[in-house]
Amino acid sequence: MLKFDIQHFAHKKGGGSTSNGRDSESKRLGAKRADGQFVTGGSILYRQRGTKIYPGTNVGRGGDDTLFAKVDGVVRFERMGRDKKKS
């Protein structure tokens, strides 16, 4: 009489290795021009989500809260109040 010990092994990859491994692309937020740097009108100064930094004189705020220069000039970042910044 013959006896067989049949075992079935997994033939698929582990679930974790296939279900992970995705991430969204970075949005490249943050300062685009430094303090004291000369910029032309329309230049993007700071990309942000929400108003982390508020626009100052001759600085506009876009629909996605991006700060941009309205006129040619030199960039100045200054503190306003307790923790707020203004460009």
SSE topology sketch:
Layout: H1 15-19, E1 30-31, E2 38-39, E3 44-47, E4 53-54, E5 59-61, E6 67-69, E7 73-74, E8 78-80, E9 84-86
Parallel strand pairs: 4-9
Antiparallel strand pairs: 1-3, 2-7, 3-6, 5-6, 8-9
Pfam families: Ribosomal_L27
GO cellular component, one term: cytosolic large ribosomal subunit
Family: Belongs to the bacterial ribosomal protein bL27 family.
Question: Uncertain regions: pLDDT < 50 for 5+ in a row?
Answer: none
Which class best fits the helix and strand makeup?
Answer: mainly beta
Please indicate the percent range of residues in DSSP E strands (runs of 2 or more). Answer: 25-35%
Give a count of the beta strands, DSSP E runs of length 2 or more.
9
Assembly type of the shown chains? single chain
CATH architecture of the domain at 35-81: Beta Barrel
| The CATH fourth-level homologous superfamily of the domain at 35-81 | RNA polymerase II/Efflux pump adaptor protein, barrel-sandwich hybrid domain
H/I helix tally: 1
- The CATH topology of the domain at 35-81 corresponds to OB fold (Dihydrolipoamide Acetyltransferase, E2P)
Radius of gyration over C-alpha positions, nearest whole angstrom: 27 Å
Mean pLDDT: 86
Q: Helix and strand string, N-terminal first?
A: HEEEEEEEEE
- Biggest β-sheet: strands ordered side by side in the sheet: 1-3-6-5
Q: Please tell me what the overall shape is.
A: rod-shaped
The helix fraction, in percent, is under 10%
User: What is the CATH class name of the domain at 35-81?
Assistant: Mainly Beta
Largest sheet: 4 strands, antiparallel
